[in-house]
From TrEMBL:
It comes from the Bacteria. The lineage of its organism: Bacteria, Pseudomonadati, Pseudomonadota, Gammaproteobacteria, Chromatiales. Residues 13-208 form the HDOD domain. Pfam families: HDOD. This is HD-like signal output (HDOD) domain, no enzymatic activity.
């Protein structure tokens, strides 16, 4: 792995408060229990308030006001809650406002769409969807980190990418910072003491062989590519994972049905 200390070191990385770390791990377990989760979420009043306000937003509101965290969790459901709570916790650790080239709504839209697709693909494969969903949500967290830490350099990267949409994001970032977003993201997650398997997914996303990986990395890589293509053409690597075309068509339809909701959530996250 490329040495990252030339631009990043542990002292310069955003810290993850203990309460946030505890919530992050708890909410992203498949066996998450509302009776355990609600009190933990309540330890972060700002997070709890945002979850309740989101449940009361025009998009999610259906039958009257939600007035408690328990009600909000029930209305949103665990899959939405997992993505929303994790996204809010992550967003709160970064300030990308000094990087005008960073498009927050676009970033969160792709991250959430990838998370949703990863979770559905894992479930269809008989795997635990929780780590897949988290891997999908965090797969490009290095972009968020670098926009926070190096806004000037990343603005130049985004400008170059707009001029040539086919250019490699990783190559452009390395050109300016001697590290790419995959390496930087993995370094951050290791600093935050998140699971080793998750760090490996984030770091491996840029590998040419990632699509063919039979494990979680390959699943998330395929989900990210599929989400970027608006779930139109099924990636060949997904068919090679033993999933039938009919199953993948079902996953694609479900993801497309979620697009309006995903867009609304991304805008909420980008608004602050």
């Amino acid at each position: 792995m490329r040495e990252t200390s030339t631009v990043l070191d542990s002292a310069s990385l955003p810290s993850l408060p203990y309460v946030s770390h505890d919530i992050l791990l708890e909410v992203n377990t498949e066996e998450a229990d509302i009776n355990v989760l609600a009190p933990k979420l309540g330890r972060d009043p700002a997070l709890a308030a945002r979850i309740v306000s989101t449940a009361n937003s025009a998009f999610f509101m259906s039958q009257g006001d939600v007035r408690s965290l328990d009600e909000a969790i029930m209305r949103l459901g665990m899959n939405r809650l997992r993505v929303l709570a994790t996204s809010i916790l992550l967003r709160n650790q970064f300030d990308s406002s000094r990087c005008p080239g960073f498009q927050a709504a676009r970033y969160w839209l792709h991250a959430i769409a990838t998370a949703n697709a990863s979770g559905r693909l894992a479930r269809a494969s008989g795997l635990d969807p929780a780590p897949a969903q988290l891997g999908g949500l965090l797969h490009s967290i290095g972009v968020l980190l670098l926009a926070h830490s190096f806004p000037t350099e990343m603005t130049a990267v985004f400008s170059a990418r707009r001029r040539d949409a086919h250019s490699s994001m990783a190559a452009l970032i390395r050109e300016h910072l001697e590290v790419d977003h995959h390496e930087a993201g993995a370094m951050l997650l290791r600093e935050w003491e998140l699971p080793v398997t998750l760090c490996a997914v984030v770091e491996g996303m840029g590998s040419p062989a990632a699509h063919d990986d039979p494990g979680l990395l390959g699943l998330v890589r395929c989900a990210a590519d599929w989400a970027a293509a608006d779930f139109e053409e099924i990636p060949a690597a997904l068919l090679n994972r033993g999933l039938s075309g009919a199953t993948l068509d079902t996953v694609a339809r479900a993801c497309l049905m979620e697009q309006e909701e995903t867009t609304a959530m991304a805008r909420l996250l980008a608004a602050d």
